[in-house]
Amino acid sequence: MGKLTGKVAVVTGASKGIGASIAEHFAAEGASVVVNYASSQEAADGVVRQIVSQGGTAVAIQADVSKPRDIERLFAETKKAYGKLDILVNNAGLYEFKPIGTVTAEHFHKLFDLNVLGLILTTQEAVKLIGEGGSVINIGSIVGPMPIGGAAVYSATKAAVDAVTIAFSKELGPRKIRVNSLNPGMVETEGVHAAGLSGGDFQKQIEATTPLGRIAQPEDIARTAVFFASDDAGWVTGQALILAGGARQ
Asked: How far apart are CA 142 and CA 226, in angstroms?
């Protein structure tokens, strides 16, 4: 029996990258999974097919979690599909780096509306369904506790994720709902490739300052998410775990 047998999980932004890997690992551990996506139905359906081909259970549900009405529909459809909810992974997010001279109000609101407000509103709606023993996992970034130049707004959103995590852990603790955040360093995802950050000098610099000598793969994050979602972490809440192979600034 898997670590998550009988559990129902919603993973936002799960059509690719870290979110897809988390959805697949949750399903492999016995969870029924909602693969949330904002725009790429084809990719989300591909994740569902992969899960089902391995004997798991999953459905794809479209919702842009920067939009309150979409969030409400996401959990209404989750309840219709599975009748309950045990685990929420707030993975959906946007990263966009801009140095101080190019920061705009539009850039600020675009990142904060999804990375912070979207996370808050998604959790707000999810906890209407999550019962005692539930788990909320927020995907932050190493740049939250360790901000970098040229990414002030993005770093600020991820610092906010950790603050929200701690605050929600205190609010939801009496209901026996645990809230934690995972803060990855550089992970080899489609987004990193699309941004041109993979394989070049930036990656080499990261690897040179990482004790384990490499960047992460999505499964490195997913395996830790399984732990946080499972009863193995039943005494763990309000934690912000850096997953960066030992990298420190």
From this structure: 19
Q: Give the count of beta carbons closer than 10 Å to the beta carbon of residue 17.
A: 20
67 and 73 in contact (C-beta within 8 Å)?
Answer: no
Residues 6+ positions from 233 with CB-CB distance below 8 Å: 135, 178, 180, 227
Interhelix angle 119-126/152-172, rounded to 10 degrees, is 20
- Single-letter code of the amino acid located at 94: L
**8-11 and 240-243 as β-strands: parallel, antiparallel, unpaired?**
unpaired
C-alpha span between 167 and 123 (Å, rounded): 12
| Torsion sign across C-alpha atoms 72, 78, 83, 84 | negative
Run of H or E including 133:
strand 130-139
Write out the catalytic residue numbers.
154
Architecture of the 8-185+217-243 domain:
3-Layer(aba) Sandwich (3.40)
User: From the first residue on, what is the mean pLDDT of each consecutive set of 10 residues in the chain (249 residues)?
Assistant: 96 96 98 96 97 98 97 98 98 92 96 97 98 96 92 97 98 98 84 64 78 85 98 97 85
Q: Which of 203, 220, 191, 227 is nearest to 93 (CA)?
A: 191
How many Cβ atoms are within 10 Å of 176's Cβ, its own excluded? Answer: 13
Count of Cβ atoms closer than 10 Å to residue 158 Cβ: 27
Measured between alpha carbons, how far is 89 from 12 in angstroms, rounded to an integer? 6
Domain range list for the chain: 8-185+217-243
Are 143 and 151 contacting, i.e. CB atoms less than 8 angstroms apart? yes
**Residue in 231, 228, 245, 246 with CA at minimum distance from that of residue 91:** 228
Which amino acid, one-letter code, is at 248?
R
